[in-house]
Amino acid sequence: RVTCLCAQFEAVLQHGLRRSRGLALTAAAIKQAAGFSSKTETEPVFWYYVKEVLNKHELQRFYSLKTITTDIGRGRAWLRCALNEHSLERYVHMLLADKNRLSVFYEDWSFMMDEERSSMIPTMAAGLNSILFAINIDNKDLNGQSKCTPTVSDLLKESTQNVTSLLKESTQGVSSLLREITTSSAVSILIKPDQDTDPLPVLSKNVNA
User: Fold this and answer.
1) On the CB side of 39, how many CA atoms lie within 13 Å of its CA?
2) Domain made up of 1-17+45-146: CATH architecture
3) pLDDT at 119 (0 to 100)
4) What was the pLDDT predicted at 16?
């Protein structure tokens, strides 16, 4: 469920990112200044925009992760960290606050540029504050399985596959529960549809008079 949730948020943040050469050069310059020699990702990732609202110490925190080596991974680590620390709502407000900066990174048709749809994101993020997350953010799997940047359709496909498996698991669980209930003689007496009178209470054989 957590994987599914993260994939949905990633899809929203990834949707409609501008493919600007300037952004790629900026990312390369930051990497060079920070002492990272890994290849610059050619496709835009939402980390390019997220890091615009982070302060120096927050940036250093994500660039210092031992197993995260890509900008895809840093964006994913930031998202999971925000969920862990219940700060996603605050960050989303910051991401949506500056419309001019938003338009530099996102196309006009993107989810983030749609005021009506994007206004729902902080509310959804706030609704997650009651849930205790403990996600490992320094996880090499967050870098992605390939060098290619995941597209929105890839993220949604991943999310949908998780939902499908969850529904299948849930359905199997309900089926086994129903089988267990109906095979129990004491309970099956209680749920007989042709029962005319109220059922007698089921007493344990160990109950003393």
Assistant:
1) 6
2) Up-down Bundle (1.20)
3) 94
4) 94
Q: Is the four-CA dihedral 45, 90, 133, 117 of positive or negative sign?
A: negative
Tell me the mean pLDDT in the region 186-207: 54
Tokens encoding 99: 């419309």
Q: What is the pLDDT at residue 117?
A: 94
pLDDT interval class at 150 (50, 70, 90):
low
Q: Is 17 helix (H, G, I), strand (E, B) or coil?
A: strand
**Alpha carbons 101 and 95: distance in angstroms, whole number:** 9
pTM of the complete model = 0.65
Taking the C-alpha atoms of residue 27 and residue 25, their distance in angstroms, rounded to an integer, is 5
Ramachandran quadrant class, 204 (left: phi over 0; alpha: psi -120 to 50; beta: rest): beta
Q: Tokens in use for 82?
A: 């925000």
Residue 134 scores a pLDDT above 60: yes
> Among candidates 169, 136, 162, 137, which has minimal Cα distance to 11?
162
Q: Smallest Cα–Cα separation from 9: which of 104, 76, 99, 100?
A: 76
Domain ranges, ordered by start, for the chain: 1-17+45-146
